[in-house]
Amino acid sequence: MRMRRAWIIGLLALTAALCGCTKQQEEPEDTLLYEDEIEDSDDYIVVGFAQVGSESDWRLANTQSFRDTFREDNGYYLLFEDGQQKQENQIKAIRNFILQEVDYIILDPIVETGWDAVLQEAKAAGIPVILSDRLVVVEDESLYTCWVGSDFEEEGRIAGRWLRDYLEDQGRGSDEIRIVTLQGTLGSSAQIGRTEGFDEILAAQGNWNMLERMSGDFTLTKGREVMEYFLDTYEDIDVVVCENDNMAFGAIEAIQDAGKTCGPDGDMILISFDAAKSAFEAMQRGELNMDVECNPLLGPMVEEIIQKLERGEDVDRVQYVEEKCFDAFMDLEGILESRTY
Ligand code: AHR
């Protein structure tokens, strides 16, 4: 059922009163529908998207995918909220969406836990919640309709297997290998899965020594800080695992500033996740060895789910997005030609 104009106007007054704020004061641009915008909203499917933030190239491509998909000329009205990497902002956004009685809520949860109460509120309001990218862990699984995203654990395994085979090829299969990991936001599905998947392969290699793991929160700045700390603390590092590209870019800066090198001909092997265009360029410059793809183009998959729900059809509870793995020895220029993110 679509939102009715007069009803929304009353609701907006209530929302503003509850928030104790005006559009000019605190609410981000896209949060609320306003009277002039509402004029045409009757026939749209109104979708509220609680995004994690804008911490990485991956995230920007992911947001763009949703903006490109949920367009007005495509029959949607998208309410977008940037959570700025804070769970409380995302919870507040969901409550706003509930107050506005959107038709669907899309949640990309920053961390897995702490969602039971607000998702219970969405369920009580009869609004389907679709999870995208990361997952939640809740007592009652009926609190969300379905999830679309990456197999993060498999991504971690792919990185581990690649490293095992690469070292073997280099004749270093039995050497002691000293590894550090720059982890993503602790408690996020991307961090948990990649760490656990890599660990599975590591556990089977008696000669791999994980010196330390530390979170760089998926950002370049923190990735750089963490890498500086690793370089100050450990004399010999053979492998740096970065749980996303932006932390890898920060790590590269720190390594170069310390007068060292990374990449196929460098002092350290550098592994990353996401495979954004900028990471391909780093591989072309010889700074990065390999990158496991994390596909951010989830908008169309979520739209297909919404269309099915609109028709009253069943949807798959779990849908993985297709992903590949790239290394510096591939035809990167050829791959880059058709790469959209
Ligand atoms: O959840 C996906 C991860 O989040 C991406 O790897 C990273 O770049 C982003 O911040």
Give the count of structural domains: 2
CATH architecture annotation name of the largest domain: 3-Layer(aba) Sandwich
Please work out how many helical segments DSSP would assign: 12
- State the fourth-level CATH superfamily of the largest domain: Response regulator
H/E element sequence: HHEHEHEHEEHEHEHEHEHEHEEH
Give the strand tally. 12
Strand content: 15-25%
Topology-level CATH name of the largest domain: Rossmann fold
Shape field: elongated
Question: Rg to the nearest angstrom?
Answer: 22 Å
Span of the ends, CA to CA: 35 Å
**Overall pLDDT, averaged?**
91
CATH class of the largest domain: Alpha Beta
Pick out the low-confidence regions.
3-30
Largest sheet: 6 strands, parallel
- Helix content percent band: 40-55%
Strand order of the largest sheet: 2-1-3-4-5-11
Question: Could you tell me which ligands this complex binds, including any ions or cofactors?
Answer: alpha-L-arabinofuranose
Supply the helix-strand structural class: alpha/beta
Give a structural overview.
There is one protein chain. The protein is of the alpha/beta class. The protein has two domains: 5-150 and 296-310, Response regulator (Rossmann fold); 152-294 and 327-337, Response regulator (Rossmann fold), CATH 3.40.50.2300. Helix content is 41%, strand content 18%. It has twelve helices and twelve strands. Strands 2-1-3-4-5-11 form a six-stranded parallel beta sheet, with helices on both faces. It has a six-stranded mixed beta sheet with strand order 7-6-8-9-10-12, sandwiched between helices. The longest helix has 18 residues, at 152-169. Mean pLDDT is 91; it is low at 3-30. Bound molecules: alpha-L-arabinofuranose.
